[in-house]
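Friendly challenge for the regulars: who can give me the structure tokens for this chain first? No prize, just bragging rights.
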Amino acid sequence: MRDLAWDAEAPPLVACHDLRFSAGGAVRLEVPRLHLRAGAPTAVLGPNGAGKSLLLRLLHGLIAPQEGRVIAAPEVRQAMVFQRPVLLRRSVAANLDYALRAAGEGRRARRARLPDLLSQFGFAASARQPARTLSGGEQQRLALVRALATAPDVLFLDEPTASLDPAATHAIETLLAQADAQGTKIVIVTHDPGQARRLGGEVLLLNRGRIAERTPATQFFAAPRSPEGRAYLSGALLL
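First reply, four minutes later:
Bragging rights claimed.
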């Protein structure tokens, strides 16, 4: 993984200011300021209901903020991978072809690139297989490859390995490490502190819709700065 280093003066890839979202009469997310810049991965940790998935959906533009602003330059390419892979009712190859077409690649370019993608990521033998008949791990890997094929500057992932076995999880993390090395900003929600440690970078800890701590992963796992961070790592319930 790359060093936890970024230019604090560089414009953020995605930012939010005075972000606030309520539902059911309760504030679900309140983030005064968050800038995500190019650099090492950001692992978003926190208990259930902390607002992690909601934050990603707001940053990616799937949900409009009720208050505040989410800012992303038009030239910043984004993609998102969900806990349950969202695949078209088409073949493996057709799913990848769709992503390339959506990214603006012409037919000739797609035809030239598709065989390489299928071979590079281990889908050559299953290219014509319906994507939804793949195993759970293969479906998630295909969803990730499809997202990466569009060359995103920022890749949001919402618990992409939550229901996968260790081998499938390792395959996903290997792809993420490769994407990180190639310059894609990884922002991943995970319930697995071990995964956050393996990915390196920084930890963003949410609790009750607020950022409790943001710190380099090495420091967070050695000596978290916040009471919430210490409680989270000890296994205590965050109330």
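The two ends are 33 Å apart (CA to CA). The CA atoms of residues 53 and 158 lie 6 Å apart. Your move, everyone else.
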